[in-house]
Design a protein that fits this description.
alpha+beta; 7-stranded mixed beta sheet; 7 helices; 7 strands; about 25% strand; globular
Length: about 160
């Protein structure tokens, strides 16, 4: 177990990366959860790729909303940007570091970190930085990550604001 004073999510994730020893890295926020098959299934799929993106489920108090790819794929990172980036972005599959499995060797080789000076979009910056450094990307249709939304969460606040306009 790693302990540190509360320095923000980026500092905690960077410390986790620094202390990691496995071949792969994924991120799970403290109030979210993952399917028990996620790591095995994703690690199996990651054998031929550098970044694996799975679907995820927004888990609200009263309803769930799945975000998934229409079909599975494996391609170069350049092909990903050309063919799947817009779909991935539109379905919110790229924003956060969750619902992805990364190769630790790539993160270490290029010293990819979460920028601790930002509290907004630091997740997306990490994902995009990693995407620029990897060669192959895969997307799978399965949902393994459950992103729990609370009434006070940022996304719910935005929905209420937009609904009033």
């Amino acid at each position: 177990m790693i302990n540190q004073s509360n320095s923000g999510v980026s500092a905690a994730r960077n410390k986790g990366i620094k202390n990691s020893i496995g071949d792969y890295i994924t991120f799970v926020d403290s109030d979210d959860h993952i399917d028990s098959k996620m790591i095995d299934k994703c690690a199996e799929s990651l054998k031929n790729t550098d970044l694996l993106i799975s679907g995820f489920t927004y888990e609200f108090k009263d309803i769930n909303e799945d975000k998934t790819y229409e079909s599975s794929f494996t391609c170069s990172s350049k092909e990903f940007v050309q063919n799947y980036f817009v779909e991935s972005f539109g379905k919110l599959l790229l924003y956060g570091p969750y619902n992805k499995l990364y190769r630790r060797t790539i993160i270490n080789k290029y010293d990819i970190k979460f920028d601790e000076d930002y509290s907004i979009c630091e997740d997306a910056m990490f994902v995009f930085d990693y995407l620029l450094k990897c060669e192959k990307v895969s997307g799978i249709t399965e949902n393994f990550y459950y992103y729990v939304q609370h009434d006070e969460s940022l996304i719910r606040s935005e929905e209420r604001r937009v609904g009033k306009e």
